[in-house]
């Protein structure tokens, strides 16, 4: 029994850069044997051969591109010109599907404003059957109300069990390994709470600016674009209680509890515990980089934030009193994403009389550009004499020699869709709960008149972000780009 895959927006940027390469990676890995056809649908006048020509360079960029696999992939690929919000288009597609296939997978690689029309057309054309799976990705609304409207439109045609909401950070190897680290190793599981952990930092730093997304980004900003989904989803995996099993429902239920336990940031706390920033002209790699306002338009007086730092707290037994510091920004000095778990210092220093201070242990989980896990601890420096201490790094990452292949997050997530496993996808309740927390921050920013602080492109963000964490006697980690 074979699946058919339909990509709505099949000639768009997302499809070319991410979806076709991820599916081709699965072809290389022998994981598309249960897929009969991959069809891109678009209103543009692209011909199948033209789209394959545009697609090919993205596939050739994969390390192990193979001509034989390319031939097989082309054999599966079809293109349909038409409007996927019109039942006639989808009825035409229906006639090309595999007779007796096991199900249809529809990826909506289009803006959310198209979701409702596409779902209605799928229903009216008879394609929204129980075996159909529909994949969507952010932005899932711009606030709680708009998300609920988008979700209601999808829910008219599909059950929650059929909807796969992608957050590609959940497909990263290091993020998935976080579950194994926490729940398969007693040494970390026993220490994973406020008795031993001093604080947590979650950072997503980008060197790029808004590039081709300026209209979208200027309406959204860093808080909605990055914190509401990526950073909060990573926070959930760090902070969640052990699920009773790896069942998707159980894991999503535990993540939801975390989101509902986030302390609202209100009143005077909004200025103390959040920082907005916007990059101004600076330099990267010795080259002058224009300001955000210049990138979105010479006459722009945009107040949109390109940087956010937040001091968050989770009000439950495990994490009471442990701050979670979140930060994300564009045009930063380094491209790096990581989770830093900083443990508390030992309660008593037996080496104090010898003048040795004890640095806290750190667990660094790197998400990009390289994925890996490193544990920092103190050890005696080799040699005679005093017990001099030095910081030692234990690399817990999988050695390159043991890696069969480095898979893109989208490839992993597409494989999970094919397998019908929703573990790495986000539930409607999670999205709604995250929007509730984010909406209140936005409301408080507006009522308190919190403005975006300038920071030079190529820096580590506004000074106010360093002040915020320094107020607690802590400092941001140096990112390993």
Automatic annotation (TrEMBL):
A GO cellular component term found in this entry reads: cytosol
Question: Biological process GO annotation list?
Answer: glucose metabolic process; pentose-phosphate shunt, oxidative branch
- Locate the residues binding NADP(+): 43, 138
Q: Which UniProt keywords apply?
A: Carbohydrate metabolism, Glucose metabolism, NADP, Oxidoreductase
Pathway per its UniProt entry is: Carbohydrate degradation; pentose phosphate pathway; D-ribulose 5-phosphate from D-glucose 6-phosphate (oxidative stage): step 1/3
Molecular function (GO) terms for this protein are: glucose-6-phosphate dehydrogenase activity; NADP binding
Q: Which residues form the signal peptide?
A: none
Q: What EC number(s) does the entry state?
A: 1.1.1.49
Entry binding sites for substrate? 168, 172, 206, 225, 330
- All copies of the Glucose-6-phosphate dehydrogenase NAD-binding domain together span 7-177
Entry-linked InterPro entries: G6P_DH, G6P_DH_AS, G6P_DH_C, G6P_DH_NAD-bd, NAD(P)-bd_dom_sf
The chain positions of domain Glucose-6-phosphate dehydrogenase C-terminal read: 179-476
Q: Which SUPFAM superfamilies match?
A: Glyceraldehyde-3-phosphate dehydrogenase-like, C-terminal domain (SSF55347), NAD(P)-binding Rossmann-fold domains (SSF51735)
Active-site residues from the entry: 230
Keyword Signal (UniProt): no
Give, as one word, the top-level EC class: oxidoreductase
Q: Which reaction(s) are listed as its catalytic activity?
A: D-glucose 6-phosphate + NADP(+) = 6-phospho-D-glucono-1,5-lactone + NADPH + H(+)
The Swiss-Prot or TrEMBL record describes its family as follows: Belongs to the glucose-6-phosphate dehydrogenase family.
User: What PANTHER family does its record include?
Assistant: GLUCOSE-6-PHOSPHATE 1-DEHYDROGENASE, GLUCOSE-6-PHOSPHATE 1-DEHYDROGENASE G6PD
User: What is the role of this chain?
Assistant: Catalyzes the oxidation of glucose 6-phosphate to 6-phosphogluconolactone.
This chain belongs to the protein called Glucose-6-phosphate 1-dehydrogenase
Species of origin = Marinibactrum halimedae
């Amino acid at each position: 029994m074979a699946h058919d895959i339909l990509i709505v927006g099949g000639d768009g940027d997302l499809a070319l850069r991410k979806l076709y390469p991820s599916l081709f990676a699965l072809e290389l890995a022998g994981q598309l044997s249960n897929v009969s056809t991959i069809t891109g649908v678009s209103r543009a006048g692209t011909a199948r051969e033209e789209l394959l020509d545009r697609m090919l360079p993205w596939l050739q960029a994969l390390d192990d591109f193979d001509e034989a696999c390319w031939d097989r992939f082309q054999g599966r690929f079809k293109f349909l010109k038409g409007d996927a919000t019109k039942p006639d288009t989808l009825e035409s597609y229906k006639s090309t599907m595999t007779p007796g296939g096991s199900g249809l997978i529809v990826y909506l690689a289009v803006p959310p404003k198209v979701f409702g029309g596409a779902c209605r057309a799928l229903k009216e054309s008879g394609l929204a059957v129980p075996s159909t799976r529909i994949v969507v990705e952010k932005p899932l609304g711009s606030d709680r109300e708009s998300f609920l409207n988008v979700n209601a439109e999808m829910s008219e045609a599909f059950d929650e069990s059929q909807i796969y909401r992608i957050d590609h950070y959940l497909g990263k190897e290091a993020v998935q390994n976080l579950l194994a680290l926490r729940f398969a190793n007693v040494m970390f599981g026993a220490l994973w709470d406020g008795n031993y952990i001093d604080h947590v930092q979650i950072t997503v730093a980008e060197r790029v600016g808004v590039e081709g997304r300026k209209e979208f980004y200027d309406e959204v900003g860093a808080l909605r674009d990055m914190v509401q989904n990526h950073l909060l989803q990573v926070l959930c995996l760090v902070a969640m209680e052990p699920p009773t099993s790896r069942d998707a429902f159980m894991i999503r239920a535990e993540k939801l509890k975390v989101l509902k336990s986030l302390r609202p940031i209100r009143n005077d706390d909004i200025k103390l515990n959040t920082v907005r920033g916007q990059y101004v002209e600076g330099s990267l790699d010795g080259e002058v980089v224009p300001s955000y306002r210049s990138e979105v338009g010479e006459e722009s007086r945009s107040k949109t934030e390109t940087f956010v730092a937040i001091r968050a707290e989770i009000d439950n037994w495990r994490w009471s009193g442990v701050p979670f510091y979140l930060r994300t920004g564009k045009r930063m000095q380094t491209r790096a994403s990581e989770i830093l778990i900083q443990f508390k210092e030992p309660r008593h220093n037996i080496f104090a009389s010898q003048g040795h201070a004890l640095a806290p242990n750190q667990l660094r989980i790197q998400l990009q550009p390289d994925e890996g896990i490193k544990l920092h601890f103190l050890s005696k420096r080799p040699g005679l004499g005093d017990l001099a201490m030095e910081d030692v790094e234990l690399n817990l990452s999988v050695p390159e020699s043991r890696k069969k292949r480095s898979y893109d997050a989208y490839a992993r997530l597409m494989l999970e869709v094919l397998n019908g496993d929703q573990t790495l996808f986000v539930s409607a309740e999670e999205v709604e709960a995250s929007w509730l927390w984010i909406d209140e921050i936005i409301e408080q920013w507006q009522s308190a008149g919190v403005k975006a602080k300038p920071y030079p492109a190529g820096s580590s963000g506004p000074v106010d972000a360093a002040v915020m964490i320094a107020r607690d006697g802590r400092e941001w980690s140096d990112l390993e780009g």
